[in-house]
Design brief:
This protein is α/β, with parallel strands linked by helices. 28% of the residues lie in helices and 18% in strands. It is a single-pass membrane protein.
């Protein structure tokens, strides 16, 4: 294929993407209400062509025998999502820096996006570098940097004489997030675990507190950081939303299931029988207090419907992981929605 053919191919794909986007814009489409449908043109990439994919997400390579789970496409009600176009994404973000900030679910989405982009330009040179908590995937031909800062709580955890102290009113790590063109934040997965010795708010120090309350205070601190530090004329801010786990089959109408192990298809309706988890309400309440524009990638419901999308025993070390997601898989849809917002 010659250069002219490449240009025509890229142009045709871009026109198609924009045509698909028109009804979404015209109707004020809710991209997060819909259902999963089988689509023979999915997945968007073969994970075997992604040489840097992490083992915990490489379900196919780890021996998962059923391969229907990546072949479902998210279909919003009343509109169409523009299909992800990696070349267009790189062209639109040429010379820009995109950073994910959060826990291992942010890593899951970051890994998904780097695979989606690499599969679109497989011969384009790239580098992967790590400095401290930040890993940067650079598409050298486009000058695009896709970064991930592993930060489970967004607020600070500081090592002091008494032990590790979570400071709910402090974000010193925010200096790492400046100068980005796009920021995608996430936190929640680790809040049910205790990876600190004390919690501090102002001068008050306690061994522990209600985790949902601590979560909301931390989100408030992060929201104030966005309002006071981020120049949203230069930096677009997203929040990933709450990625759900599937360890209780009663919540999806299958009381005998005690995890996602053996699940081979999504719930094909539009609603999750167990409803939304309470942390979603906490997150939305906190986002409502931020005065600067922050876009919520409200991926909870569409992900709740995907009880089949987790690594289960085909992740890291054979442990039953019903929190993270196989790649290719559900996080590709999160990034497809992110792409539609960027359009």
């Amino acid at each position: 294929m010659g250069l002219q053919d490449n240009v025509i191919s890229y142009g045709s794909a871009l026109v198609l993407s924009l045509l698909l986007l028109l009804p979404l814009l015209a109707k004020g489409c809710d991209m997060f209400t819909g259902q999963w449908v089988k689509d023979a043109s999915y997945p968007l990439y073969d994970p075997s062509t992604c040489p840097f994919i992490r083992r915990e997400f490489a379900c196919k390579k780890n021996g998962r025998p059923d391969l229907d789970y990546p072949t479902f496409r998210w279909q919003p009600h009343g509109c169409e999502l523009a299909r992800f176009n990696g070349v267009d994404f790189l062209q639109k973000n040429r010379g820009k820096k995109i950073m994910f900030v959060g826990d291992s679910l942010s890593l899951n989405q970051w890994q998904s996006l780097t695979c989606m982009l690499h599969s679109s330009v497989p011969k384009s040179p790239y580098t992967i570098t790590t400095q401290g908590t930040i890993t940067t995937f650079t598409f050298q031909e486009y000058g695009v940097e896709i970064k991930i800062d592993r930060n489970e709580y967004l607020v600070d955890i500081v090592s002091e004489k008494i032990g590790n102290v979570m400071k709910l009113d402090s974000i010193n790590d925010g200096k790492n997030w400046l100068g980005m063109d796009t920021l995608i934040f996430n936190t929640w997965h680790w809040w049910s675990r205790k990876s600190w010795d004390y919690i501090q708010i102002g001068r008050n120090i306690t061994k522990d507190m209600d985790r949902m309350e601590a979560f909301e205070i931390a989100l408030g601190t992060w929201g104030k950081w966005v309002d006071t530090v981020v120049d949203t004329r230069k930096t677009r801010v997203f929040f990933q939303g709450i990625s759900p786990s599937h360890y209780n089959g009663t919540l999806w109408g299958e009381p005998t299931a005690h995890s996602c192990e053996g699940q081979k298809e999504p719930l094909l309706g539009t609603n999750y029988p167990g409803g939304l988890p309470p942390e979603v309400g906490v997150l939305k309440r906190a986002l409502g207090k931020i005065t600067k524009p922050v876009t919520l990638l409200d991926i909870t419901m569409l992900s709740l419907l995907r009880k089949d999308g987790h690594p289960s025993i085909y992740g890291l070390g054979g442990r039953n992981d019903c929190s993270h997601w196989c790649l290719s898989g559900v996080p590709d849809t999160w990034n497809e929605i992110l792409y539609n917002y960027m359009l």
